[in-house]
Amino acid sequence: MKKKMAVALLLITQCFFLTGLLMSNHRDKRLGVMSPQVADTAYVKSFFLRNLEVERLGELSASYYRQWVKTSDLEENKSKLWSLWVVANQARMSSFMVADSLGKEFIWELPSDERMKVETFTKGRRPLSGYPFFINLHGGGSDPSASTAWGADFNTEEWRAAKMLGRRYADAPSYYFVPRMANDKKGRWYLKPQQMAWLRAWQLAALSKEVNPNRTYILGISEGGYGSFRMGTFYADYFAGIGPMAGPETAEAAPIENLRNTAIRIEVGEDDRGFGRNQMGLDWRRRLDSASLFNPGQFKHVVNVQKGRGHGIDYKDVSSWLSQHTRKIYPDTLSFLYYPIDGAYRLGFGYVRLDHLHSADGRLLFHLVKQGNVYHVTTKTIRGQVDGKIAIYLDKVDYRKSIVVFVNGKRRFRRVVRPNLGVMIESLALFGDPERIFSGKVEVSVE
C-alpha cells in the first residue's frame, strides 16, 4: 500500500512539474522571451541578402520585433547577428581584394553599368584594433568627349598621382582604398553609382577584419577634394574625419550641421581663385570657428589657407591629422540635414532611420539632444516639404524606465521600450556597421 501511494505521489509530482514547464514555455512564447540563439538563421540571412545596396530597406517579419532580448544577452546576440551578416556578404566580399603592402588592383561593377578600377595597399604593421582606413580620391574631372568611360588620360594620370602620394603620406600604419574615376564623361565622385561605391567600400573594409571601423576617413585633391567634401559630409556618420584639399565646397553642397561629430581638415591655396576656392576656404574657416566656439568639443577642424599657393598646394599634413581622430558612434548631440545628392537620400544617419520620410527634393534640418532616457528633437524646414516619420535607435539608456521623446517641444512618446531582435536585425541591415547594431527604437512623426 505504501509503495502504491509513493508511486502515485511521484506521478502527481511529475504531472505538476510537466504542467508547470508547459505553462512556463507557453508564457515565454507569449512574451517572446528568447535565448541568445537566433532561431531562424536562414530567414535572417535572406533578409540581409535582400537588403544589400538597396535604395529602400525592405520589411522584416513583425514576429522578430516581439522577440525580446535580455540586456545581459545583447552582446551575444550582436555577435551572432554579425556572423550572419558576414555570411550574407560573402559574394560581395569576393569582389574586394584585401590589401597588402605591394598593392592589389581590381574592378568593381557599379549601378548604371559603370565600372570602377580600385587599388588597395597597406603601410606599416596592422594594429590589434585594425588599420586606419583611407578612401583617397584623385583629381581630374569630366571629359564629355572621351571615347570611353576611362578615356580621359588626365584622370588616369591623376589616379597614379593619388596612389603615389598616398604611399608617401606619413600616416603609417594605414590602409588605402584608391579608386579611379568610373566614368570620365561625367567625372564626378558624388553621383549615385559613386555613393554606392563608398558605402560598399566602408562596409567591406569593416567586414575584412583588417580595418578599424572607428578610424575611417575620406580625403582627396581638387575634384577629389570636392568629392571627399560632399561624400564625407553626406556620410559623416561613417567617418571619423574628412580631408578635402584644393577643393572646398559650397555651404549648400556640404551642410555644416553634418560635421558636428566628424573632424574636417581643409587645405586650400591663398591664391587659388578658380571657382572662388580661396574665398570658400576663408568662409569655411569663419563658420567652423564660430560653430566650434559655441559648441565646445564639437566641430573639430583645421582650415589652412596656404600662403602664396595657388591650386597646387602642400598635401602632406592632412592624413596624419585625420588619423588622430576617432568616430563618435552615439553622440548626445546629433545634427544633420536630410537632403538628396543626385536624387538619393540617406536611409539613415547617425542613430536615426529616415527612409519613412517623404519628399521629392525637400531639405529638413534635424537637431537631437539626448539626456539620459529623454530625447529632444528639433526640426527646421530648409526647402520644400518633408513629412512622415523617423525612428530613433536607442543606446546608452535604462531600459527599465520610460523613453521620452519630444519633437519641436511637444511630447510625442513616453513608454518603456524593450530590447528586441527585430530592431537589431533592422539596424544592422540599414547601416552594415558592427558598431551600430541597436536593440531598441522609437518611431515619431515629424509632421
Written account of the structure:
The protein has 447 residues and is α/β, with parallel strands linked by helices. The protein has helices at residues 2-31, 41-50, 74-88, 90-93, 153-168, 192-207, 223-234, 277-294, 318-322, 421-431; strands at residues 104-110, 114-123, 131-137, 174-179, 211-221, 241-245, 263-269, 301-306, 333-338, 348-349, 352-353, 357-358, 363-371, 374-383, 387-394, 402-407, 410-416, 440-445. Strand 3, helix 5 (153-168) and strand 4 form a beta-alpha-beta unit. Helix 2 (41-50) packs across helix 3 (74-88). Mean pLDDT is 92; it is low at 1-36.
Order of helices and strands: HHHHEEEHEHEHEEHEHEEEEEEEEEHE
Helix content: 25-40%
Strand residue percentage: 25-35%
Structural class: alpha/beta
User: In angstroms, what separates the terminal alpha carbons?
Assistant: 77 Å
Which strands sit side by side, in order, in the main sheet?
1-2-4-3-5-6-7-8
Largest sheet: 8 strands, mixed
Average pLDDT rating: 92
Name the poorly predicted regions.
1-36
Rg to the nearest angstrom? Answer: 25 Å
Instruction: Give me the number of helical elements.
Output: 10
- Please report the total strand number as a whole number: 18
Q: Can you tell me the overall shape?
A: globular
